[in-house]
């Protein structure tokens, strides 16, 4: 039975990823609907080469619409500029960057190339004000408050997290899980909560673990839910966005600083038992480590989550790369490429849990180091 379920799951993942990543390749092969007739004729005469970099960035970076199996789901655009005022409309009004709307337009790599714009000056998926010549005007400052893929998905993850935890808390208040065995989602999440408490909070925070446990659990589940959401084909890779991980790292940095004491800073600026000559080298290193710790949290989560998605896209893209060389080669590479894709996808499921655990564990370790002097004082008092 387990073998049958695993095979069914493998076939499902195979189908989903094949359909998902086939659409961008087909779209690039046949061109865009908004192209002029001469571009379409050129596309028929000479097959356009697959741009792997563009496909990767389309799936990894943020955007103003979702793509599910070739179907675009537009998201709200909210922009303001002093010259053109505040505008609210759906991103579909831009027609994939081919047309301006209400004095604004969104640029894509394709529209930047068609207009002959400098790709160093104009960015992909950025909204610009349109000047009198009908081209984007960088002199007009545009403030973008749009609900992008990352923002929408983060709100969805937050809503799911809050609803799930409030429902579980309500059950505990009613006595379910206290006077009787936990039921439903309680039985699923209670071992995870207990694990974070016993294996992460208590060993690193000691008697203060209850003070920090709510924050550690919030960080763990929030990262975990966003990691799992990012594995859904067509969704946004929120934890693979450096801005998202940077905010989490800065919050942990603030928690670490507010948890520190005089003993902690004394060991940084005046390490005991260290010769004076060595202190000139050790003190700057120790001071930099205060900022390196949150930076390590930011980069580790970002790099691990974005790397897996890039590998999966590259493996799927091998089918179309070989297919452009020879159709038979494309079909021959398909089983091997999709087999490795399924394998990496299963690893990504493990990484989703592992990275949430590592971020939470390191945060607890760094916070525990910030007030570690109190442990020595308590041990000395007991002695």
What does this structure look like?
It is a single chain. This protein folds into two domains: about 75-145, no CATH class; about 150-380, no CATH class. It has about 375 residues and is mainly alpha-helical. The protein has a three-stranded antiparallel sheet with strand order 4-3-8, with no helix packed on it. A three-stranded antiparallel sheet has the order 5-6-7. A two-stranded antiparallel ribbon has the order 1-2. It has helices at about 1-30, 35-45, 50-60, 110-115, 150-175, 185-205, 210-230, 240-260, 260-270, 275-325, 325-370, 370-380, and strands at about 65-70, 70-75, 75-80, 85-90, 105, 125-130, 135, 145. A hairpin with a 2-residue loop joins strand 1 and strand 2 (about 70-75). The termini are far apart. Helix content is about 65%, strand content about 10%. The longest helix is centred in the last third of the chain and has 50 residues, at about 275-325. It contains twelve helices and eight strands.
**How would a textbook summarize the main sheet?**
3 strands, antiparallel
> Going across the major beta sheet, what is the strand order?
4-3-8
Q: Tell me, what's the shape?
A: globular
* Gyration radius, rounded: 26 Å
Quaternary organisation: single chain
Could you report the average pLDDT, rounded to the nearest whole number? Answer: 79
What's the SSE blueprint?
Blueprint: H1 2-30, H2 37-45, H3 52-60, E1 65-68, E2 71-74, E3 76-81, E4 85-90, E5 104-107, H4 109-115, E6 126-130, E7 136-137, E8 143-144, H5 149-173, H6 185-205, H7 209-230, H8 242-259, H9 262-269, H10 276-325, H11 327-370, H12 372-382
Antiparallel strand pairs: 1-2, 3-4, 3-8, 5-6, 6-7
């Amino acid at each position: 039975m387990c073998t049958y379920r695993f095979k069914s799951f493998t076939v499902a993942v195979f189908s989903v990823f094949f359909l998902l990543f086939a659409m961008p390749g087909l779209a690039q092969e046949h061109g865009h609907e908004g192209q002029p007739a001469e571009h379409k004729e050129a596309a028929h005469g000479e097959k356009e080469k697959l741009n792997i970099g563009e496909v990767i960035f389309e799936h990894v970076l943020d955007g103003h619409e979702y793509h599910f199996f070739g179907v675009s789901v537009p998201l709200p655009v909210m922009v303001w500029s002093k010259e053109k005022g505040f505008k609210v409309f759906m991103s579909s009004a831009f027609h994939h960057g081919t047309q301006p709307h209400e004095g604004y337009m969104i640029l894509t790599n394709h529209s930047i190339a068609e207009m002959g714009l400098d790709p160093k000056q104009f960015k992909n998926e950025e909204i610009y004000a349109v000047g009198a010549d009908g081209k984007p005007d960088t002199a007009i400052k545009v403030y973008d408050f749009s609900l992008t893929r990352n923002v929408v998905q983060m709100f969805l993850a937050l809503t799911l997290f809050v609803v799930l935890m409030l429902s579980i808390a309500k059950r505990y208040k009613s006595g379910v899980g206290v006077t009787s065995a936990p039921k439903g989602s309680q039985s699923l999440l209670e071992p995870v909560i207990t694990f974070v408490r016993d294996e992460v909070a208590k060993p690193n925070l000691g008697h203060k673990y209850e003070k920090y446990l709510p924050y550690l659990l919030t960080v763990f589940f929030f990262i975990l839910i966003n990691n799992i959401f990012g594995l859904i084909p067509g969704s946004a890779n929120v934890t693979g966005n450096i801005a998202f991980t940077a905010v989490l790292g800065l919050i942990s940095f603030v928690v670490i600083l507010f948890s520190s004491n005089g003993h902690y800073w004394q060991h940084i600026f005046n390490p005991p038992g260290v010769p004076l000559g060595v202190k000139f080298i050790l003190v700057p290193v120790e001071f930099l480590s205060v900022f390196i710790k949150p930076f390590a949290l930011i980069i580790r989560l970002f790099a691990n989550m974005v790397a897996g998605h890039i590998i999966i896209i590259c493996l799927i893209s091998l089918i179309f790369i070989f297919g452009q060389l020879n159709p038979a080669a494309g079909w021959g590479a398909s089983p091997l490429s999709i087999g490795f894709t399924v394998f990496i996808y299963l690893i990504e499921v493990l990484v989703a849990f592992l990275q949430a655990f590592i971020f939470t564990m390191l945060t607890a370790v760094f916070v525990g180091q910030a007030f570690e002097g109190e442990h020595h004082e308590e041990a000395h008092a007991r002695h």
